[in-house]
Write a structure and sequence with these properties.
elongated; mainly beta; 2 domains; single chain; four-stranded antiparallel sheet; Methylamine Dehydrogenase, Chain H
């Protein structure tokens, strides 16, 4: 999918300090095609799954022409040595320069009507020369050693499917689905790089952290994890992703986003359901259902600094801040409790508990709660309200902060789950797992403005920034 075709008009300008060539990226001499750019940007295209096409690697590991190295059993990516062999193989089908149609590597998988060859045994992977994956290869042929400078960022709502392999990209301006990320079965957590270059989704089926390129909406890299992942969170500087591992005795995997490697598996108290980086970026907070614990990690040292035992399993959490930006409270939903608890971050103790009252005239649902009658929390960007979902009554309850006074309720579908806000705080999005829909709510009026059809059992939902070329 051409991400430029689906970009909204809400662009956030970016500043870059590196110098660029007139074509928008740094260049080498034409006959010195950059290996690192090939390894990190071009090679993932050969592994990508496109609708109605097999992956390039399926045929080209046995090709007598352009030949790719087979992946080792259980490997998600090529070794450096294999990458250099792939580079040499691809280089033989490239004529360096600014005319991409001179290179068979580019014309062979391109649709004939777009200037491609009459026939390719692997099919027509790229419908036009504007396809972002095709452009990545063309940039390499033209001498690129870095990504094109993006023209800005767009805000997107990312909705996963707990019972599917598709993740939906929603434009919050139009409330339309503008892209689908395929090939991640049981995507759980979602986070985006602060520069908008990529998304991070935890893959429960493959036990990996999947890195999705924002230009192509395809998996760029799969990073092996120490066990089955649940939720993820990215550090403020974007250099690390924290992944909760939902296996006993409990750990958080820490991913280096530059090297795209798992650099540490940090033991914690209990299998981790959710992990969050606090608003000030100083801590990662991981909750365990199994041991009913909150585990707090210092993000400077990536060491566990304190643990708090709760009365029941720890489910979704949300945070508010003090005037200086430091963490004030953790709002915690607990197993088999229809409401939330409040934990004072500095005192390291529970200081309040709020139970959601019944909704008059609304039938109480008790089937399929999975031990979580309330399973979605969010503090509005202005810090003035807390939104908490109820799977029992199909509503979101809205509380004022800091006094925790209920100020409203809004119907948000069957089995509502996670909560995310647009950065300006005007809208909140909630996945209705029972209806296969995402609900968009006006925060000020507490009225629904759109219902968006998405995939099977939509639970985790997040707000992301995505780069636009």
């Amino acid at each position: 999918m051409n991400i430029r075709a689906v970009a909204t008009r809400i662009l956030i300008p970016l500043g870059f300090v590196f110098s660029l060539s007139p074509t928008g990226f740094a260049q080498h001499a034409a006959d010195e095609l950059d290996f690192e750019y090939f390894r990190s940007e071009v090679q993932p295209i050969f592994l990508a799954k496109r609708n109605n096409n097999v992956r390039c690697i399926q045929c080209h590991t046995r090709s007598s022409g352009f030949r790719l190295q087979p992946l080792a059993d259980g490997a998600f990516f090529w070794t450096d040595e294999q990458s250099r062999l792939n580079y040499a193989s691809a280089r033989a089908f490239v004529v360096p320069g600014t005319d991409p149609l001179k290179s068979r590597l580019l014309t062979h998988p391109l649709a004939t009507k777009a200037g491609g060859d009459p026939f390719h045994g692997g099919g027509q992977h790229f419908a036009s020369q504007d396809d972002p994956e095709w452009r990545i290869i063309a940039d390499w042929v033209a001498g690129a050693s870095s990504r094109r400078e993006p023209s800005g960022l767009v805000i997107r709502i990312i909705q996963t499917s707990a019972a599917g392999d598709d993740t939906y990209v929603i434009d919050p301006v139009t409330n339309k689905v503008v892209g689908i990320i395929d090939d991640i079965e049981i995507a759980h957590g979602i986070a985006s790089a602060p520069d908008g270059s990529q998304l991070y989704l935890s893959n429960e089926a493959l036990h990996s952290l999947d890195v999705v390129d924002s230009r192509t909406l395809r998996v760029k890299r799969r990073i092996p994890l120490s066990g089955r992942p649940n939720n993820v969170s990215v550090s403020k500087d974007g250099r690390k992703v924290y992944v909760g591992i939902m296996e006993m005795p409990g750990s958080v995997d820490i991913i280096d986003t530059q090297a795209l490697t798992n650099i540490k598996t940090l033991p914690v108290d209990g299998a981790i359901h959710n992990v969050y980086v606090t608003p000030d970026g100083k801590h990662a907070v991981a909750g365990s259902i199994h041991t009913s614990t909150i585990n707090v990690i210092d993000t400077a040292t990536d060491e566990l600094v304190w643990t708090l035992k709760m009365s029941a399993g720890v489910r979704p959490m949300a945070f508010d801040t003090n005037a200086d930006g430091s963490t004030k409270n953790i709002y915690v939903q607990l197993s088999n409790f229809h409401g939330f608890a409040v934990v004072d971050f500095n005192k390291r103790e529970e200081v309040a508990r709020v139970e959601h009252p019944p909704v008059p005239g609304e039938h109480a649902h008790t089937d399929g709660l999975q031990g979580a009658p309330a399973h979605g929390l969010g503090v509005s960007p202005d810090g003035k309200t807390l939104w908490s979902t109820s799977k029992v009554y199909s509503h979101a309850y809205v509380y004022s902060l800091p006094d925790l006074r209920e100020i409203g309720r809004v119907f948000v579908g069957q089995h509502p789950e996670w909560v995310t806000f647009t950065p300006d705080g005007k809208y909140v999005y909630i996945g209705a797992a029972g209806d296969n829909e995402t609900h968009a709510i006006d925060v000020a009026t507490m009225k629904e403005v759109a219902t968006i059809a998405v995939g099977q059992v939509p639970k985790r939902v997040a707000t992301a920034l995505m780069a636009v070329e």
